[in-house]
Amino acid sequence: MSDTPTPQNTNSAIQFDELPDAPPKRKIKLSLLGKIGVVVLIFWAIVVAIGPMIAPYHEADILDEELFIVPGSDEMYPDTDFQPPSKIVLLGSDYLGRDTLSRILFGARTTIGISFIATTLAYLLGVLLGIAAAVGSKRLDMILSRLNDALLSIPSIMFALVMIAALGSTIPLLILLTGIIYATSVFRIARSLGQEVMVSDFVEAARVRGEGLWWIITREILPNIAMPLATDFGLRFVWVILFISALSFLGLGVQPPMSDWGSMVKENLPGLIYGSVAPIMPALAIATLTISVNMIVDDISAHTGGKLAKRMIA
Amino acid sequence: MLWRALLSRLGISLVTLWVVSVLIFIGTNLLPGDVAQIILGQMATPESTAALRAKLGLDKPPYLQYVVWLQNVAMGDLGISKAGLGAGLGTPIVEILEPRIFNTLRLTGLVTVIVIPISLFLGLIAAMHPGTRLDRAVTFSTLSLISVPDFLVATMLVLIFAVFLGWFPAIVYLRGDETGWVLIKTLAMPILTLVIVASSQIIRMTRATVLNVMSSPYIEMAILKGVPRKRIILRHALFNAVGPIVNVIALNLAWLVGGVVVVEQIFSYPGLAKLMVEGVLMRDLPLVQACAMIFCVTYIVLIFIADMATILSNPRLRHPK
Q: Right CATH number for B99-283 from 2.70.70.10, 3.90.1010.10, 1.10.3720.10, 3.40.50.1860?
């Protein structure tokens, strides 16, 4: 009789010891495509870091004809432009006879750097104003939302064209413009996520407890909206790369002689007819980067219950 | 109740439109230089510039210029093209816009007619068989297509169909009297590019929407009740997916309105987006304002339709508590 309660007691004691721990952290398992995406992304990150150092030539170097002289042939002045890949130029040469590989390695810094800074700016602006709209008064929310809707209802490339024509194409303007344009969609997401959290029970509990607004924002709202925002950052980053490349392609983005993947496609387009790979390589560079980011985001959002897809539609 | 929801959405659209008009007016006024100088060019003396400025109403304060412009636009008068783009000085903008709007509408209209059935079919097929090889193929290829730049799609198509195969011209020359097969051949490349870019978006969103409906509790209930699969999709899922899908289509058409700019440039298609770019380069203020207003009105109308589709197809939103 007296023996039986003891094991029960120890059992419940053990269970109690295990209970108060935080719930186990969810591990995100990436599929094969997601893993490939991570590898490609790391590759481009390394290129951004050390690209100009490992480039065989400088981005603006027009290669000497001597380099292209085939041993044993009596051709003294061979063509240097739109050359096919060889030992001298691993990915061929461009329309001026510059090394495509070197230009891609240099251009990675410009394209990825500008896009990353612009996306970060968009996030700073969008999240700041979005949370302000979510926690602020109804009137503030109304004003910010209407302004945002108005900005959203100007096709972004039109907006950029007008502003660039007015103020000229410089890199700071490009970053600022892209940041503002993409802040509008970040604002929508941050606002709706923030509103969701604001009406939750734990925020109400925090309010009843007497916590201040700042405490609620930093301790309750930000941690709760961080994960969905992080995946959205990836998507937005892809849009920004495509947007800036499109501007460069129209001749309104990064200006020569700086190399940038979008403008590299544009300037080498005539080479397509001769079967040159010069316009295709930078386009492939953009594609590998954006596809790999999208693969990773797709994998992660599949684990967060597809909520992201809903937000993309909204 | 329904009318109230409709009216409030309409009110919001109108307020948005007004804010847009102010933004456009401010934005276009940022353009350096003024039209009087451009028209006069070499002959610009201070006196003649001042005289022309007065004649064009450029000497008035900006807010007055805005009020005058808004009044005229509301009465359907878009003003006179100040740089006279290709049609001589003082041509009414409406005349310049007409053929361009027709061209852009023709392009986007044809794209829409092709895109909607294709993408709905592929999206539904992929959503009905999630995880199969077909679904993965559709998901992977559409994800790749939305990840690559529009101009890559366009140049690859030019490479294949214009350079290697020589089926279609790489640049669009529209005389305006083409019919039948010639017209199709001329428009094939821009249409194909836009169809590929737009459909991959709609396919992805359709798939996501239907999958979302399929994972809802009432579908699970229907499955547990033993309702046949076909009946589940046709009676339970489809009606609930119609609203979101119309929403997706409207949003993508809105995107198409702005997204044509790269395609119209690559193929030098004489549409509205290209006209606006030309207007920006010529600093033809009224023309740019008119084009921007047309784009924004179209966009806002499509967004309004998207919202309405969501409200009308959902009884809970149709009869709010």
A: 1.10.3720.10
